[in-house]
Amino acid sequence: MVAFIVDSSFDKPNVETKYPIFLAPLRVYIDGVEYIDKKNLSVDDFYSMLDSAEDFSTSLPNPKETEELVKKLIDEYEHVYMLALSSKLSGTYNMFRAISAPYKDKVTVLDLKTASVELYAIFRGIVHYLEEGKEITQELVDELRKKTKLFFGVMSLKYLEKGGRIGKAKALLGRILKIKPILTVNSEGEVEVVAKERKFTNVVEKLIEIGEEFIESSNLKNPYIIAGYGSEKYRKYLDKVIEHFNIKDVAQISAAVGVHTGPEVFGIVIGQF
Questions:
Q1: Is 137 in contact with 27 (CB distance < 8 Å)?
Q2: Nearest Cα to 29, choosing from 57, 1, 7, 8?
Q3: Which residues neighbour 116 within 8 Å (Cβ) at sequence distance 6 or greater?
Q4: Domains of the chain: which residue ranges?
Q5: pLDDT in tens, 27-45
Q6: pTM beyond cutoff 0.85
Q7: How is domain 2-146 classified at the CATH fold level?
Q8: CATH number of this structure's domain 149-271, picked from the four choices 1.10.340.30, 3.100.10.10, 3.30.450.20, 3.30.1180.10
């Protein structure tokens, strides 16, 4: 039996998984107060506080606690896979590598080069190949990502700007023109713009359009599609997308990610498995 360790940017629907998943939570800071993501900070409380927060940021999982978790799991499981959000967006991957170095025979660290609900979609692919008896490597993950894509819309660029995920010039131009971008995470694990709309309703229509284009261009016959949203009040804007793609799995976007996207975010992930 194998086990997985994920950081708290790993957002999954409320479903059971065949293999156990253990959490290495990121730390979230709101107006100088430290919270442990998904431990003493619920997603709904986070978005409620974010609306009025003046300062907000994230920090790596606690290294000592993460190492203790690794030591515990390697005694209980044949192998442990540590799945990290993109190394271009966080230092979590490098921290996982450093912690696991003494146990490399029993621990594999993987840079999933994305975040949030796309991490779960990649996890599903990893499980698929585990069941086939394939060796799980970084190269396999990179191949999985070629047939997996996250598309998400944000209504405000200030959070991406503050977190350094988008340049100040682009953010300023977006505010002036009232642009609502649709973004993705590219093959290198960096956020990039794939479309721009000025009307909120157009964002929904564009998500459907580019989602269909990706399915066709990737030749996905029976794709797995999951939807994600930030603040609870934005879930309703996914209704049309969910109906169009007949989506069954929906997950709320965690504080670790929401710090950088803001509450006004929703999107989909399309994958092979």
A1: no
A2: 57
A3: 9, 10, 11, 150, 228, 251, 253, 254, 257
A4: 2-146, 149-271
A5: 999 999 999 999 999 999 9
A6: yes
A7: Rossmann fold (3.40.50)
A8: 3.30.1180.10
